[in-house]
Amino acid sequence: MTHPASIVIVGEAIAGLSAARELRRRGYDGSVTMIGREVEGAYARPPLSKGVLRNPAAETTLAYPQADLDLDLVRSPAVVLDTAARVVATADGRAVPYDALLVATGATARRLASPAQRGERVLRTLEDARLIREGIRRSKTAIVVGAGFLGMEVASAFVASGVEVTVVDTEPLLRRVLGSYLSDRLAERAARHDVRLLHASGPVELSGDPVNGVTLPGGTTLTADLVVTCAGDIPAVGWLAGTGLADRLGVAIDERCATAIPGVFAAGDVAYLVPREGDPARRTPYWSNAVAQGKVAAASMLGEPSEQGPTDDYFWTEILGLAIKVAGPLPVDGPPASVEGDLDAGDATLRWDAPGTASTVVAYGRKIPVGRLRAMTRQPYRPEARGRSGRNSEPGEPSD
Ligand SMILES: Cc1cc2nc3c(=O)[nH]c(=O)nc-3n(C[C@H](O)[C@H](O)[C@H](O)COP(=O)(O)OP(=O)(O)OC[C@H]3O[C@@H](n4cnc5c(N)ncnc54)[C@H](O)[C@@H]3O)c2cc1C
User: Fold this and answer.
1) Which of 52, 173, 220, 281 has the CA that lies 20 to 30 A from 274?
2) In ligand 1, which atom is closest to the CA atom of 125?
3) Number of folded domains in the chain?
4) Does 399 reside within a domain?
C-alpha cells in the first residue's frame, strides 16, 4: 500500500510523539508535521505531581527527546479542522494540509470554579505545577478536591512539604478504580500521614474569590491557604467543532485507532475505544495507553498491521511515599484473590482474577519489574517465593 505523502500530528506530547517515533521506526521517510501549543514543547506529565511540585530541579527531567525524528514543528494551536479539504488551520494563520491526520490533543483539567471566580488551581501543565509549588511555599493548610490518583499525589506533595491537607470527595479514596480492599488500606495509610479524608454527600463548590475554600452540600464551608481541584479531565476537542469527530467522551476510535472519517486517526487521552458490546464506553487516560495508541495509529496511517493492540493496562502512581504499579484490567472490585507480603509495610503483591480475561496484579510498594508484572497478569495464579518480606495474608484478611 502507498504511504501517505504527508502526515500531520496535532498534539505535541506522549501520544503524538509515540506515533512519530513509530512512523520513523517503520521506515516512513515522508513529511511529518507536529502541531503543538505549549511554548516549552513536549514534556512528560507524570513527574509534575511526583517531582516538580516539590523540587524545581525535577523540571529538567521532563523533556522528550525528538531531535532525531526530523519533524516539522508548528508551535501554534490547531483551531479548525476541515476534513473535506484535509487541512488543519492554526491560530497563527497557517493552513497545514495532510494526507493522514493524528488527533493527539489529550485533555485539559476539569474545573469547578464559576466563570467569575478567580484563582482556581488545577494540575495538568507545567505552568499549573509551578503555580501550586509557589502556593505550597506560602501555605500552612491545603484542600484537595478529588481523592483519585492525581488528588492523592498532590496531597502527598503537601504532606512531604509539611502542609496540613484535607482531601474532599464524594467517594472513598480510589475505590472506583482500585476497589474497596485497597481503598481501605490506602485510607489507613493516609491517616498515618495525618491526611484528613472528608466524605462529601454530594458535589462541593469552591468558595471565595480568589478561591480559598470549599462549600459542602450541607452549607458548611472549609477554608485553607491553598485549594487544588483534581476532579478529572476533559478531552481537548474544541478545535474539532463541526467535524462530527468528537462527542461528550472524546474522539471514538476503533481497534486501529481510526476514527469514522477516512484519513483521520486519534490516540491518547483525547480518544476512547468504541467498546465491545455490553462494555461501558470510557476513556483510559493513562500514559502507557497513550503510548500504545500512538504506535497503533502510526501503523494504521501507513496501512500496516500493528503487533500490539490499542490498549495497555499498565498504570503506576506514588501515594504518600508508596509506589503502586498496576497491570491488568481496571477497575477491580471486591477482595483480591490473593495478597502476598505485608501491606502495612508497603511491600505486597495483590491479584484479582476474573474468568475469561487477564488478571489484575498490583505491586504495592514492592519492586517488581514492569515486564514481570505484565506477565503475571497472563499466568495462572502461583504464589511468589514466601518469606521474602514477612507474612502472607489471605484475601480479605486484614494485614495487621
Ligand atoms: C500531573 C499528572 C500526573 C500523571 N501521572 C500519571 C501516572 O503516574 N501514570 C500514568 O499512567 N498516567 C499519568 N498521568 C496521565 C498521563 O500523563 C496522560 O495519560 C498522558 O499525558 C496522555 O498523553 P496525551 O499525549 O494523550 O495527552 P496530553 O499529555 O494531554 O498532551 C496533549 C498535547 O496536545 C496539546 N494540544 C491540545 N490542544 C491542542 C490544539 N488545539 N493544538 C495543538 N496542540 C494541542 C496539549 O497542549 C498537549 O501538549 C498523569 C497526568 C498528569 C496531568
Assistant:
1) 173
2) 53
3) 3
4) no
